[in-house]
Design brief:
Length: 371
Amino acid sequence: MSITSDDVSYYDYDLPKELIAQQPLADRDAAKMMVVNRQTGAIEHRQVGDFIDLLTPADVVVLNNTKVVPARLIGVRVQTGGHWEGLFLELAIESCELRVASCENDNIQTNSTPRWRLIGSTRGKLLPGERVQLLDVNGRPDVVLRFETKAPDASWTVVPESDENYLTILDRVGRVPIPPYIRNGQMEESDINNYQTVFAQVPGAVAAPTAGLHFSEETLNKIRQKGVDIEYVTLHVGIGTFKPISVTKLSEHEMHCEYAQIDAATAEKLNQRRYAGGRLFAIGTTSVRTLESAGQSGEILPMAKQTNLFIKQPYTFKAVDAILTNFHLPKSTLLVMIRAFGGDELIKEAYRQAIENKYRFYSYGDCMVII
């Protein structure tokens, strides 16, 4: 039986473990940057510092200004004393069903109780009604969480026994949510800065928009000095962005929801640049997902809502002209998106060359630009 683009195995590849970057380079401009040309099929090997050479003053660079919150949690089960670890995902809507529906309806009313949605693990089975006492970064007892309901996706709705804002609590008890392929998810002090873009502004992400990690203040200033406009959108990256697909067919995959926002002024500027012949350079797949969600009509419209847009073949891109992105996990929705944009054979060849030339993969790794 032949494999089709709907088969998840179609997006698999073998990656030597040593190519998974465990630390970012001290000089992000020195990271490798592959340049993939969709029109000619040419593949060049350059550095991030050369990115500005690909731009003209007519273009616009679009960055995701979401800010990673310290979402990794450690605690103790009050009833048993057992160790518990978890990951804050977001403030919870009343149910997972309601949350999915909110992707299609901006007017759904939610409970004002400050519930959280999270995932976690512990020895044995945690039951509804149980309480977990979180430990702060120094191991001291802190806020208690009461576990209410468990959803089919294994996430829990919990209630913190505190009137504090969730960000205040997370800043005190949370750790940087480093992905498991980096040091088994164990943060180092340097991750506090390294796993956050220099332009992060709006708290809400539980994973970094990693393509943006390549941009220093110096690089951004050089882009502006060339006359290239830089605009910001927001998409709060959720765990579903990087999670491998668990079904065998893409058509069976239920795409996760993420909150995305483009304000009216930004939408107008982006449309003006495109109408004038400029290109939209989306930095990262999260910027792509935001722009395409807002641009389904052919014009980029202001938006502030959940999106569950799944970009896969066949798909006609309506807003994005070029993408700078890191190298993604096999069988992930991100790789599916990039293959839809760059073309199957060309992107497969790009990944082959990346492995051959020992590019560094995933969050702290090198990148490619597809033009």
